[in-house]
């Protein structure tokens, strides 16, 4: 790819002009597109929520992408939003091995594990349902509470950032699902989660948003529901005592 073209594509990406990126690259004959060009095309398609098309583009360069963590990340991203969570989990695990401790990878790795675990529970419940002829609605679901409802319903908060907040709370839920009931240990996990949410403040600000009153109440309500679900007797204000918001 010519340097001027590449530079322009990067500028368009920074300006969220993803349609322009797709149009420009699609104007290049497929035989003339190199690995980087196809990668940028797929990234733009993912950003436009054209996940299936992005995945198809990435699979055309699969051999070249075997050892590239970014290729596996983008493939996993496509799979995740196509709701193919097991495939997404596989790709993010590979990404993590190739590029350990990347924050975005760890976040999506957590989300994928959560989705796979939830589907597993639902499948097990369906199996029990069929065997006992108990209505599905009568079976208690492990994730019967709703995460951050008000934040997801308010356009002021970008969903991808709300997802990051949720990911931190999901880590606490996983800990509780293992049967941990020690108050000090649970509080320690909550403190860590809230501190991680504090660290997201700058990203919210960069996206013209803020962890403010609605967010605070939504996070607090979710934490309260989590603790109630698992029978943990910690006051909500104590549970989120590390908050900066």
State the gist of this model.
The chain is mainly α and 245 residues long. The protein is built from 13 helices and no strands.
List the helices and strands and how they pair.
Blueprint: H1 3-14, H2 18-26, H3 35-47, H4 51-59, H5 69-81, H6 85-98, H7 103-132, H8 149-153, H9 159-177, H10 183-198, H11 201-206, H12 213-230, H13 236-239
Helix pairs in contact: 2-3, 3-4, 3-5, 4-5, 5-6, 6-7, 7-9, 9-10, 9-12
TPR repeats: 69-102
Coiled coil: 176-217
Protein name: Tetratricopeptide repeat protein
Task: Report on the architecture of this protein.
The chain is elongated, with a radius of gyration of 21 Å. The chain has 2 domains: 3-109, Alpha Horseshoe (Serine Threonine Protein Phosphatase 5, Tetratricopeptide repeat); 145-239, no CATH class. It is mainly alpha-helical. It has helices at 3-14, 18-26, 35-47, 51-59, 69-81, 85-98, 103-132, 149-153, 159-177, 183-198, 201-206, 213-230, 236-239. Keywords: Coiled coil, TPR repeat. Residues 176-217 form a coiled coil. TPR repeats lie at residues 69-102. Pfam families: DUF5713 (PF18977).
